[in-house]
Amino acid sequence: MIPQMVDVETDVVVVGYGAAGGAAAISASDNGANVVILEKSKVPTSNSRCSAGNQMYPKDASFKEQYKKYLHAVSKGTVDKDTVDVFVEGLLKNPEWFKKLGGDLQVFRFPPATISLYIPSVTYSHIPEAKGLQLELYNLKQTETCPEHTGGDRVWNLLNRNLKKRSNVKIMLGTPAKELVKNDKGEIVGVIAESQGKSIFIKAKKGVIMTCGGFEFNEDMKREYLTPNPIFSFGNPDNTGDGIKMCQKIGADMWHMTKQATYLAPKVPDYEAAFVINLLAPGFVYVDKRGRRWADETHIECHEFWLPLSDFECEDFEYPRVPTYLIFDEEVKKIGPISYATMGYNVIANKYIWSSDNQAEIKKGWIVQAKNIPELAKKLSLDEKTLVATISRYNELCKANKDTDFGRPREFLKALEPPFYAISLWPCLFNTQGGARRDKDARVLDPDGKPIPRLYAAGEFGSIWGFLYQTSTNFSETIIFGRIAGENAAQLSPVES
Ligand SMILES: Cc1cc2nc3c(=O)[nH]c(=O)nc-3n(C[C@H](O)[C@H](O)[C@H](O)COP(=O)(O)OP(=O)(O)OC[C@H]3O[C@@H](n4cnc5c(N)ncnc54)[C@H](O)[C@@H]3O)c2cc1C
Fold first, then answer.
1. Whole-angstrom distance, CA of residue 427 vs CA of residue 264
2. Does ligand 1 come within 6 angstroms of the Cβ of 474?
């Protein structure tokens, strides 16, 4: 039912103020629409702000068609080819778009010392479609006009500064959207939101754009759609999948609900979000709950950890790798913080600075320390015999300079000597990919594949990536489909009242 009383009237309502919401609002405003952005958090600390903000591009335009073919292949039919093609075409427009807003892209390279955070530029370089493909990682340059310390924060603040200059954009913080409002013709004509404890109706004469992110902090949804369990997140605690229920209620189809980008990382009870791990020297191994090594620790693509972590042992009825224990040596401890300083909610919102020698985290009891392996096993409640055998075996492999168990490369084989350190690691989401199904024009679809009139979506809320995530494409899709959604909604004629 349409509420009789209209509290705010506008052309386009944008639900959620991350990068997708910001891009959608700018584009709708540029196309002449009045825009209201509804943001649940009082201080926006979206996943976009917490993110590294890295974006993958074809190295030059000559790789454009091959990149499309590669993405068709790795998507395995979970998204239509047209949408992927629109993504790649849109990608090539991003640099110019950022420039107009006052931001410049630059090539970004992770420091070579990063051993745990494995991100090849072409993830599945062995498939035929990848042969010869060259991609390059970019993020926004830190300049006087984009001064923020971290990549995602720079982009979000650039969008924010541009939006604040626009008289046709109103930003309502601390105002969560609760329901979508549909008229008799099935068109979406507004949103019911909560403002200062009261329910308000924001009428949208042209359309509503859903950019309210994923469900990284909704325990029920994670249990229902994702494996393994539990699973934590590096991002924004207000991402609780609200848009999923709102869209289900008005008959939208859902897609990619079981897909995710998940790494392995420390999660301590004192903080809601997890810390991104970053190991700078090779003296470390991962062991499971039984004290067994389970992989070449240096070559698991950092977004795809959910796959090996989802290994479930029916006999013991548990995920044996959840948690996994990181065991490391003095060199790893001393060389630098084991947590990445330039991304994550704990860095952006909580301003947590991990100590440079990890000593503060030892003092807090997050990292345990032991003189020998039996003592470490006791502290971690692991089977002593198994852990002793695992570390001895690993040290033998290092001595032989060949990991015949898991194929860890020679340059990363370093025997572990006392003292030993350990911390438990959990599956941790960069983000979920699920949400409302949409088409290449960013229109939300019903289960018959028909667009729901005047409803659009972009970004992590129903990401286009539905099989294995292609590194650093989530951030760029927020901008590409945010821009498309904003433009398309703004160009509609106003709803007949
Ligand atoms: C640590 C980290 C590093 C990452 N690094 C990269 C990277 O380098 N490259 C890459 O491609 N991707 C990366 N990602 C993923 C990427 O950042 C996200 O996929 C992307 O930023 C999502 O943007 P978004 O605008 O769709 O959603 P978000 O940025 O999450 O914004 C959603 C907003 O909606 C708000 N919201 C939620 N519910 C409601 C409601 N009911 N009403 C109103 N507002 C609501 C939320 O509070 C939030 O502000 C990273 C993620 C993390 C956490």
1. 5
2. yes
- What is the rounded CA–CA span in Å between residue 154 and residue 141? 8
Provide the 10 A C-beta neighbour count for residue 50.
Answer: 29
Specify whether 68 is located in the same domain as 168. yes
What is the total count of domains within the chain? 2
Beta carbon of 108 within 6 Å of any ligand 1 atom = no
By most ligand atoms within 8 Å of CB, the mutation choice from 15, 48, 135, 469 for ligand 1 is 48
Nearest CA to ligand 1 atom 35: 16
Residues 316 and 270 in one domain: yes
CB-ligand 1 contact for 53 (6 Å cutoff): yes
Q: What are phi and psi of 5, to 5 degrees?
A: -95, 125
CA of 388 to the centre of ligand 1 (A): 42
pLDDT in tens, 322-357: 999 999 999 999 999 999 888 999 999 999 999 999
Whole-number Å distance, alpha carbon 120 to ligand 1 midpoint, is: 22
User: What is the predicted pLDDT for the residue at 341?
Assistant: 86
**106 forms bridges with which residues in the sheet?**
139
Query: Ligand 1 centroid to 311 CA: how many Å?
Result: 27
Condensed to tens digits (0 to 9), the pLDDT of residues 49-75 reads 999 999 999 999 999 999 999 999 999
Which token pair is 455? 């409803």
DSSP at 353: -
Q: Which atom of ligand 1 is nearest to 178's Cα?
A: 41
Asked whether residue 177 is domain-assigned, the answer is yes
Contacts of 458 (CB under 8 A, 6+ apart): 20, 23, 24, 209, 210, 211, 438, 442, 477, 478, 481, 482, 484, 485
260: Cβ below 6 Å to ligand 1? Answer: no
Shared domain for 198 and 308, answered yes or no, is no
What is the CATH number for 284?
3.90.700.10
| Boundaries of domain holding 298 | 261-429
pTM above 0.90, yes or no: yes
- Segments in 352-495 forming alpha helices (H): 359-363, 373-380, 384-400, 474-490
Q: Is residue 495 part of a domain?
A: no
For residue 443, what are the β-bridge partners? 456
Closest residue by Cα to residue 248 from 15, 437, 6:
437
Q: For ligand 1, atom 14, which residue shows the shortest CA distance?
A: 51
